[in-house]
Amino acid sequence: MRPCQATRSKTMASTIASITLPVSADRVWQLIGGFNSLPDWLPYIPQSELSEGGRIRTLANPSGDAIVERLEVFNDEERYYSYSILKAPFPSRDYYATLRVKPAGETTSVVEWAGCFAPVGVSDEEVVRLFHGIYTDGLQALAQKIMEVPALGVGTFRLQGEAAFDSVRNALEAGYRVIDTAQIYGNEAEVGAAIAASGVPRSALYLTTKIWIDNLSRDKLIPSLKESLAKLRTDYVDLTLIHWPSPGDAVALKEFMEALAEAREQGLTRQIGISNFTIDLMQQAIEVVGAEAIATNQIELHPYLQNRKVAEFARQNGIHVTSYMTLAYGKVLSDPTILAIAERHQATPAQVVLAWAMRLGYAVIPSSTKRANLESNLKARELNLSDDDMAQIGALDRGERLTSPQGLAPAWD
């Protein structure tokens, strides 16, 4: 449906904005979340409310009167909805718009936001410029949201064989949709088998793997990633990381970062990133592929090692941080400060630490073989720590690094 077909107004202006995303149409449509989910991805719409059986949407508008919209068409199968505006502080009337997600291949989609409107007191050019700007900004915000590294997932470090299969199966049954693995973990096949057995659609998952140091050279990286995909029973992963920088620069950073970027261009991975990179190594990676190409730096980060210099450099360059070993192998769970905060909130120590990391904007990937722990960890998303709680945990930093393999670890900051 063309956006202007639903109005009888003779003098209409129209515009359309679009963006291409390296994500399947089904996944994008799912993440958009329906007619009432604009606040989930539009930063300038803090909240919305539905009425009249979900057909009227009232959007909070910090800059003026609320915007009231009516759902005209919702087509889940074809992935679009159309709406009209009943009330808004815009110089237009007879407004009708459509938000649509189109497939552009198995792992790529195009999102279109189109509208038509009759100008009131302004020229066609002015009102087109207004709405095109709104649509373009909105789609950029949507892209940023969709390409974000999810805040909470399940890790599989040190899990082998049946334990890895059972952990992933239990995690998926508990509601996890983000899974982290790596070539060196030796469990990609079990992770893939658990996903296949779960019945959860691939498009609903966010899957990360990591390239081991033996596969960093240009001639090995992509073939090794294809082997990982075969084990994981998928055509692509959502995120591929360089697990560790090449020891002794045996493979030049430029070589493996360019090979990783090529893997993304081939559609083997939607996003790329790094792990265990220092500030200097991050700067080098930025010079090769650009900061915008690096989705995350996955680093050891917990209350006893808060890695502030690396995290701040990443933040300044728009690189997300993923915390591994957030619970410090369980050491922080008996810390008196953590225990006291947990008691105040009637939460578990693990929930407190995970909530602390997520409050700071870090993604977390705790692992567990126990279903009860997996379910409990998910509840960390609901825990709201106070500023005082955060300050107390912040004071626990003592630079205690637990992972620094000899011959593998770089010169830490």
From TrEMBL:
Highest rank taxon of the organism: Bacteria
Cited PROSITE patterns: ALDOKETO_REDUCTASE_2
Keywords: NADP, Oxidoreductase
Catalytic activity: hydroxyacetone + NADP(+) = methylglyoxal + NADPH + H(+)
One GO process term, biological-process aspect: methylglyoxal catabolic process
A GO term, aspect molecular function: methylglyoxal reductase (NADPH) (acetol producing) activity
Pfam families hit by this protein: Aldo_ket_red (PF00248), Polyketide_cyc2 (PF10604)
InterPro entries given in the database record: AKR, Aldo/ket_reductase_CS, NAD(P)_OxRdtase_dom_sf, NADP_OxRdtase_dom, Polyketide_cyclase/dehydratase, START-like_dom_sf
Enzyme Commission number: 1.1.1.346
Stretches assigned to the NADP-dependent oxidoreductase domain: 152-397
PANTHER family associated with the record: 2,5-DIKETO-D-GLUCONIC ACID REDUCTASE (PTHR43827), NADP-DEPENDENT OXIDOREDUCTASE DOMAIN-CONTAINING PROTEIN (PTHR43827:SF3)
Family listed: Belongs to the aldo/keto reductase family.
Name of the protein described by the UniProt record: 2,5-didehydrogluconate reductase DkgB
Upper taxonomic lineage: Bacteria, Pseudomonadati, Pseudomonadota, Betaproteobacteria, Burkholderiales
Designated gene of the protein: dkgB
